[in-house]
Amino acid sequence: MLGSLSKKNFFILVSIVVVGVIAYRAANKTTQWTDSASLTTDISTMSFKLSGFIKTIAVDDNQLVHQGDLLATLDDADYQIAYDQAQAALLVTESEVEAAQRSYNILTITAPASLAAAQAQVKAAQAQLDNTEKNLKRAQYLTNVTTQQELDKLVAQQLIDFNNYQESLAALQKANTVQEQLDLAKAQIKGFDGHVKKAKTLVAEAAKNLENTKIKSPFDGRVTQKSITLGEYVLPGQRIMAIVNHKPWVLANYKETQLTRIKPGQHAVITIDAYPNMSFDCTVDSIQRGTGAAYSLFPPENATGNFVKVVQRVPVKITLNDPIPQHLILGPGMSVLATVHTHE
Fold this sequence. Notes:
By secondary structure, this protein is α+β, with helices and mostly antiparallel strands. 45% of the residues lie in helices and 25% in strands.
């Protein structure tokens, strides 16, 4: 009787093992899990583009911040002075352009009138000179009725009229350069326009530098690794803190033999070691082309030495379907158990 009971127990045990193996294989066909997974997210290293002394620090370690929130500022006194100087230089340059344009406008009106006046003056001087010369010739011919005093007076008048005529010709020649004067005025205005553009560029640069004395959060997240104090001198590009995005995802390193059934879009569930009693619905986002080892600093070289085949792991990105509650203390690097439902 004892022997029959032992045989019966043996068959029961074998049946349980067989059922367990069948169930395990069935489960493996519909789910793929790994504990080689962790949370990850975008981490932005914050630094100033300028050098200077820290004036204000607007955040504390691990503080929740939103996109656009002020994080810290530099002493902006020197940059404010540079901006004011650039603005003043721009005003001076613009006034010079305005004065040059006004002079050009006046010249376009007065130059033609001056030319017409000079031409009329030449004609009048020419007529006066011709008339005087005729009178002088008549007086020289009628010597019997012309006194020496009258003759001397006509000679003196001829000289005066000749000089007036020469002066009118010189004035006309100067007035004929009106086009050259207009071209020169245009060139001056064009040169001033270039100065204005340069001045505006300097103002924009000074304004940008002034704005760069403030550093703001690029997205919603948490402040980490804050490493500055008030009054500290910092250099351009020096790390002062980091902002951890509050929207993490999971990087699960599945064995390459598990990838046969894993595809983007499949439903997944994760549990986080810090909160083992909570589970989160997720979706397979994408699968990396290449193993993690292939992108390491020293990738394996199987062409040399003795080869031992090792199952490789491939990173799979899994995104959470719903936002993580803010009261949970989560961050990149925390361990995760990831399960993908393949439904096969």
